């Protein structure tokens, strides 16, 4: 692929201050997410994969090293600039869906467009079209509590993709779903990865799920221990 | 995020928690309603008092011993009817001079009795004070000269003593002396809770004999010329000072009385508004409290909004608008209740109430401002939330 990498991390570290004690969560991670990539991020809890996920999504800033998202140096961005970067380049899918209660599916999906300043009418059109793509064209005006878990996660996926991001970050997207529903959601994510070329980075515990990714990154104690891309001789 | 959008989000959030929003507003509603109502009562009272003082007659000058100041004790009058004649000469027209010597007395008619103010007056009183009779006639010069025992009753006294009979022509007994009723006044109504129709007028000469005194309490002058009313007052005071060395006299105009009363009622209105303002403040603290609870409750929502691109400012504005919306809707409701309450008070009670536009504008402005002031802290807290922490919150 000739396109510029979606995300590049060079020796990125992240340290939390807890009651005056420095707790290192990441100890120097270098990783490149190419456009259209499909990466599974694995590791035991406490390995730093969630921290890395937050950094890759621009929700947090590194304590050390360089992090470049969509060609922009995260360390130099102000909070509003970072918010805009997230809005334009990143889509998030969470284990717990994080849909707004008492808000229809279409309005949930349209939410990122609100912060992009898109008018109400156009927002709804784009959100409805996106819901159609995830197979929920008949559920536009249902509220989250009227939808099944799988449907809720599909609404969340539509919300993540409505802004046309370059990277989709999914944190245990099937963790709250039964295996059948989970498999369907996974297939949807993979289909969207292929169809729209959005890079898919997925945190998962599930070895079977991880095995489906084109690239597997395993973490332990705040460092990357294996990266199938570099192991295979590709990558950075 | 556009502002119109932010208003809608804030409105939806409040509607999602109708009960809590309503209860939070209640504090502001009560605060604003009491400000509007109490200021209306204060203003209405002031207006009525001003009307009544002006209604005493125009170009009035009251001459009393001592100083007419708030808080000064009334002095015992050294004035006599000779002084009244002297004042008449200064004014140039004795018909423009009225006097009073007043005392509380029990008045009887048959087996009925009434404790009232019996005023000794001159026949000039209706001219000077613009009083009108409902029935019968007023005192004459000859009634005063001869100390004739005749009386003109205020409306309340007439009703109390003669509930089912015409008072004119009847006999009454004032402190053991018999008087004949010759007239009844047109009712004046109440003023500051005082019944102004609870009085009996008798010739000053008869009153002096009744009370065993030569004094008169006060002299009232209807000045012929409004422009020179102050100068006339000074000349009267100078004349009286010459006749009674060592005693101070004051001549006060209606404007001065209005000024003193206006000051008192203005302070009263201010105090009432301030007390009501405290409840508005308490309402604001309630708003702040609920907004903090709301921020905590919706931490995940805030985290999600930030994740999809909300700037700290977008979140802050959203919560600030919620607070402002709470207090302004509360403020509007409070205004409606306050105006309604004022109209009700004015309609069913003797307390006057006049709603003023400035009090409405002030109450609404203050309630919106309360929303901003008490919404800022929760809004800032929401805006500054770390999205990572916020998303992790259960």
TrEMBL record, chain A:
The keyword Transcription regulation does not apply. Keywords: ATP-binding, Nucleotide-binding, Transport. This is Macrolide ABC transporter ATP-binding protein. CDD domains: ABC_MJ0796_LolCDE_FtsE (cd03255). It comes from Micromonospora sediminimaris. Residues 7-236 form the ABC transporter domain. GO terms for molecular function: ATP binding; ATP hydrolysis activity; transmembrane transporter activity. It comes from the Bacteria. One of its GO terms (cellular component) is plasma membrane. InterPro entries: AAA+_ATPase (IPR003593), ABC_transporter-like_ATP-bd (IPR003439), ABC_transporter-like_CS (IPR017871), ABC_transpr_LolD-like (IPR015854), MacB-like_ATP-bd (IPR017911), P-loop_NTPase (IPR027417). It holds the Pfam family ABC_tran. Signal peptide: none annotated.
UniProtKB/TrEMBL annotation, chain B:
GO terms for molecular function: transmembrane transporter activity. InterPro entries: ABC3_permease_C, MacB_PCD, Macrolide_Exporter_MacB. GO terms for cellular component: plasma membrane. Residues 21-237 form the MacB-like periplasmic core domain. Residues 274-387 form the ABC3 transporter permease C-terminal domain. It comes from the Bacteria. It is found in: Cell membrane. The chain crosses the membrane at residues 21-42, 264-295, 316-349, 355-377. Pfam families: FtsX, MacB_PCD. Keywords: Cell membrane, Membrane, Transmembrane, Transmembrane helix. It is a multi-pass membrane protein. Belongs to the ABC-4 integral membrane protein family. This is ABC transporter permease. It comes from Micromonospora sediminimaris.
